[in-house]
Amino acid sequence: MYKWDRTLYTEKLLRKNSINKIFTMYADNFGYGWFIRKKFNRKVIYINGRSPGFSTYLARYIDDDMCIIVLGNN
Fold first, then answer.
1. Burial (0-12, 13-18, 19+ Cβ within 10 Å), 23
2. With CB atoms counted within 10 Å of each terminal CB, which end of the chain scores lower, N or C?
3. How far is CA 13 from the centre of its chain?
4. Which residues contact 31 (CB under 8 A, 6 or more apart)?
5. How far apart, in whole angstroms, are the C-alpha atoms of residue 65 and residue 67?
6. For 67, phi and psi rounded to 5 degrees?
7. Distance between CA 40 and CA 38 in Å, rounded?
């Protein structure tokens, strides 16, 4: 997941134009599948998911070049 985060800062997988579209807020704090909000007075773009047996959370603090990844088995 960290490699995925790092790749989203480059154009190795997607063009910059496409990346910008993904992380643009279109409706009620949502981009293309990503939540876009302010936390701790910082812009954060995050996604989460769960399925029976596990849950995930990936937050990208773009302005700080910081990524938080939480993976859990339950």
1. middle
2. C
3. 15
4. 21, 22, 23, 24, 25, 45
5. 7
6. -130, 135
7. 7
